[in-house]
Amino acid sequence: MFFLPLTFAFFLHFTHTARGLDTIYDYTAKNAAGNSISLEKYRGNVVILANVASYCGYTQSNYEDFKYLEEKYYERGLRIALFPCNQFGQQEPDTLPQISTFISQTFAYEPEFFDKIHVSGPKSSDLFDFLQRDAEISWNFWKFLVNRQGVVVKILDHSKNPRDFEQQIIDLLGSEDAAKIEL
């Protein structure tokens, strides 16, 4: 009886290792038009993925930083993918077109939005289940920095601003194989 759980744990570890690291490229998300889009589209880029809300105390600082980073590093390969979420404090009740208009008018910024999602609980998306393997999302504006190989290399919670990634972004953009994770 003792060996059964141990054998199962070994099997899970072996199958995970045999197929390699999971990456964001293994997942899809619905875009603003409701179509499933493979995150393979980000292959070769450094990506920030974040759950966002328009009526949160962190909205202004995060969108200002997203805009700053995207304007400064887009040409070098930085992409920002934002996922509106109404789970925390009901701070994203609007439709996607309303959200896009609000952000565009308020911040003169037109980020890439995906469809509204759940990031935790029984309705959570597979992508966000994957992203929060090492950190449980507890509020709006959790940010996941992903290297050019599609691997999450740093996580910032809601209390940190996107610019706190800036040095890591520079490092990741500077080398196509920077921050590789070895097994």
Automatic annotation (TrEMBL):
SUPFAM superfamilies: Thioredoxin-like. The active site is at C56. Residues 1-20 form the signal peptide. One of its GO terms (molecular function) is peroxidase activity. It comes from the Eukaryota. Keywords: Oxidoreductase, Peroxidase, Signal. GO terms for biological process: response to oxidative stress. Belongs to the glutathione peroxidase family. This is Glutathione peroxidase. It comes from Caenorhabditis angaria. The lineage of its organism: Eukaryota, Metazoa, Ecdysozoa, Nematoda, Chromadorea.
